[in-house]
Each structure stands twice: as structure tokens, then as C-alpha cells.
Amino acid sequence: MGCISALGMAEPSNISKYCTGKMVYINVAVCLAVLLFVIGLSVGLSVNTFKGRDALDSTPLIDGHNDLPHNLYQKLSNNLSAFHFEKDLRNDVVWGSTVCSSCYTDLPRLIEGKVGGQFWVAYTACGSQYKDSVQLTLRQIDVIRRLIHRYPANLQLVTDAADIEVAWRSGKIASMIAVEGGHSLDSSLAILRLYYDLGVRYVTLTHTCNTPWADASTVNDGYVYNLTEFGQTIIHEMNRIGMLIDLSHVSHNVMKEVLAVTRAPIMFSHSSAFGVCGNYRNVPDDVLHAVKKNNGIVMVNFYSVFVNCNTSRNATMQDVVDHINYIRNLIGVDHVGIGGDYDGVNSMPEGLEDVSKYPDLFDRLYESREGEPTWTKEDLEKLAGRNFIRVFQAVESVRDSLSSEPPREDIIAGDELYIAQKNEGLNPGACQTAKEWNGVNVTDAEQKETRTKRHQA
Ligand SMILES: [Zn+2]
């Protein structure tokens, strides 16, 4: 008599008829013991063999910020025929780590790093503000689109939340476009809308320079313009069209102002925790609490200078772990993500040297050392991509709920542009041909400028 009949399942009657009642009991006991042993063994084995990185097989790892397009501009003037993305560039004479301190990205290493979704960043330096920032940004959007189309087997342009997983399941990196720095909008809602039409899905409100309508983190606790009324209009238009609002790089005051007026969840595409390292690029605790209320996400930046404020030692992966755990402990696992900032900075922590290293970070988090929160597979999936997809979907839902609202037709007041340009040491309006400059009342503008300066003092 075998385990099949002992457990009440069908077995040929010519065998079971020889069984006595006692034999049945013994067999049931033995079989149950064997069954429990096998179940226990398989459960034990599966617990022991699961690694944090395995979470990246069941959900796409989405990184919020990669500046490779800027390196393409700096090194190759966006000439992609000279770029061999498909090769391991670790030791390349142009892209290798010994010759390029901000180069961390190529296709083989992205695949090794299990990257399933990536925001590619269209960035132009603050020096282009009030000049050719829009033109330069368009070039960067173009090179991102061309890069994606050049590698159709590996990259796919994605413009909505649902397609991230579709692209990833077909073995491609869901490639999304971001614009970093409100100066790329040139204070124009028209430009914002057209970026969206070109596939851009988040705009970082500032880079390191203030725009006429929002302050950058460089103002620390103070403010120059804060978020102006026109800045609020930009937020509302972003909500209306479904453009994600990225608060990395803005001042702490602007973070709060935006969180008070946005109707959709916000994101920090590449920022860490101010409570761990007091750099103003990081997110302070009161803002983190507001992010939880807003149902948004902070995608943690790996940049050595932002994660480790102790200059007497090098940054390590442990610093990044500390930032992730800090945010998780303060506001929960639903509001944290990954925004490495690869190719945008010149120093990465030991253990996270390039885009191939994300799986090591997930293994390390899963270890959940003493004093650290326990990371389950589901938690790791949220960190990797589920949280961001939720935020993206919520932004789309707000967009859909506002579909009956017409596009906003506001333009920024000429005197606000005047003051902002004067503050930058420029000759206001010198490079401008837009007709709103004709109506600028210089006397009013000068008076406002005095008032603004008083705020700064
Ligand atoms: Zn940045």
C-alpha cells in the first residue's frame, strides 16, 4: 500500500485489499511524516535561496534619473553613430571609469543591473536660462528618442504607466523621458505642453538656478521668489496634462508650497534624506511627512556627497541603505524608490560603482541587519518599481479627471522676468523678442525688485 491510498486517493484495489487496519494507520503516519518533511524542506530551501535581487525578476526596477544623454552631448555632440551602447564600456578610452568620472552606463551593465525602467534625462545647464535653453533641451529630447529607436531590441519608449510593465515583460528597458530644470520651460506653458507631446513625463521644477517662478535648493532655508502665482499655474497645468512634478533640486520652501497646491502625487526623482545627511538637495522630515500625505515617492539618490556628509571617509552602499531605511521608517515602504543619478555626478559609493550594482543593493536590504526594518519580497518590489508605477497611475487619473478643463493660457508677467534676469546680472530682455517685453513697466519692475531684495535679506 502506498501513500496514495493511505491518504485516501485512488489506488488499484488488488494492492489495497491486502492492507489491514493497523497497516493503514502506520502507512498514514509514515506518509504524513514524509509529506511534511518534503514540504518543510522545500519551504526551507525557498527561504534560504531567495535573494533580494530576485524581487527584480517579479517587478521592473525603475530608476528615476540617469544623465547619460548629457554625457552624449558633452562627449559626442549627440552623435550616436560614435556611441557603442551595446558594448561594455568599463574600460573604453572615452567612456571608461579611469578617463570619465561621470560615466557609469552602458547596455550590458544595465542588463546586469536588472534595470527594467529608466528615466533618461534631458538636461541643459543653467547658463542657458533666458537664452537657448529650449533649443538645447529639444536637442536632448531628440537624442534620447534616437537612442531608444537605435536599440529596439533593448529599449522601448514608454509614455504611460501601464506600458512600463508591458515593455519590461517583453525583455526591454521601459525608457521614459524627463526634463531636468524649470529653466528648460522658459516660463512658458506652451513649451510645457509640447514637451509632453514629445513624450516627456516629468519635469524637475528647477536645477541649481532659480527660475522666475520657483527657487532652487541653493537658497537653503531662505527664499527669493519661492513658488510664485505663475509657479502655481505651472503646477496646475502639469496636473491637468498628466506631467509628473519632480521636486528634486527645488528649495525646501518650494517643496512645501508645491505639496500644498498639487492635486496629484509628486515625485523626487533623485533625492535622499536630509535627516541622515543635511545637504539641501535632500528632503527634510516635515516634507517627507507631506509626501506620505500626498501619496508621492522619494527616489533615493546615490551620489556620494548627498548620502554621506562625513567627509573623512568614503561613501558606501551602507549610506544608501541608511537613507532608504530612514525614509521607510519615517513614512512607510510605500513612498520610497530608486533614483541613482548615474552619469549626472562624479562620485558614487563603494559597492554602487555603476548601473550593474542595483541587485547587490537589493540583496543587502534583504539581509535586514540588526536595527534595520525587515524587507519582504513585496517590500522590495515596492521599492523597485511598484511605488513609482502607483504614483504614475495616480497622476494619470488626476489628468483624466481634469479632462474637461481647458488649457491654461496665462503668461508670466514681464516684470517678473525683468527682475529675475536682473538678479542674474543679465540685461533684461536683451535676447528676447517676445511681445510681452514691450509692455514691461520698468519703474514697477524696479520697485518689485527692491521688495524682492528685502525678502532675501
Ligand atoms: Zn540633478
Secondary structure topology:
Blueprint: H1 3-6, H2 13-16, H3 21-49, H4 55-58, E1 61-66, H5 68-76, H6 107-112, E2 115-123, H7 133-150, E3 155-157, H8 161-169, E4 173-180, H9 189-197, E5 200-204, H10 229-241, E6 244-246, H11 252-261, E7 267-268, H12 285-294, E8 297-300, H13 304-307, H14 317-331, E9 336-338, H15 358-367, H16 377-401, H17 414-423, H18 442-456
Parallel strand pairs: 1-2, 2-4, 3-4, 4-5, 5-6, 7-8, 8-9
Helix pairs in contact: 9-10, 11-12, 17-18
The protein binds zinc ion (ZN).
Zinc ion is lined by residues 180, 249, 270, 344.
Describe this structure in words.
There is one protein chain. Helices cover 45% and strands 9% of the residues. With 457 residues, it is α/β, with parallel strands linked by helices. It has 2 domains: 52-402, TIM Barrel, CATH 3.20.20.140; 414-456, no CATH class. Strands 1, 2, 3, 4, 5 and 6 form a 6-stranded parallel sheet that branches. A 3-stranded parallel sheet has the order 7-8-9. Strand 3, helix 8 (161-169) and strand 4 form a beta-alpha-beta unit. The model is unreliable at 1-19 (pLDDT under 50). The structure holds zinc ion. Zinc ion binds at residues 180, 249, 270, 344. Zinc ion binds next to loops. GO terms for molecular function: metal ion binding; metallodipeptidase activity. InterPro entries: Dipep_AS, Metal_Hydrolase, Pept_M19. It is an enzyme of class 3 (hydrolase). It holds the Pfam family Peptidase_M19. It is found in: Membrane.
